[in-house]
Amino acid sequence: MTEASYLLTILLLIPAAGAALIFLIPASRLSVVRWAALVLTTAAFIWSALLFAWFDGARSSMQFVERVPWFQVDGLNVRYQVGIDGISLLLVVLTTFLMPVAVLASWNITRRVKPYMACMLFLELGMLGVFVSLDLVLFYVFWEIMLIPMYFLIGVWGGERRIYAAIKFFIYTAAASLLMLAGIVVLYYQNGADSFDLIQITQRLAEGRINLSPATEFLLFLAFFVAFAVKVPLFPFHTWLPDAHVEAPTAGSVILAGVLLKMGTYGLLRFCLPLFPKAALALAPIICVLAIIGVIYGALVAMVQPDVKKLVAYSSVSHLGLVVLGIFAFNHVSIQGATYQMLNHGVSTGGLFALVGMIYDRRHTRQIADFGGVAHVMPVYAALFMVILLSSIGLPGLNGFVGEFLILQGTFLSSSAYAAFAALTMILSAVYMLWMYQRVFMGGITREENRLLADLNFREIAILVPLIAIALWMGVSSNTFLRKMDMSVQKVIERVESAREQQIFRVDNRGN
Question: Where are the domains of the chain?
Answer without folding.
Answer: 277-512
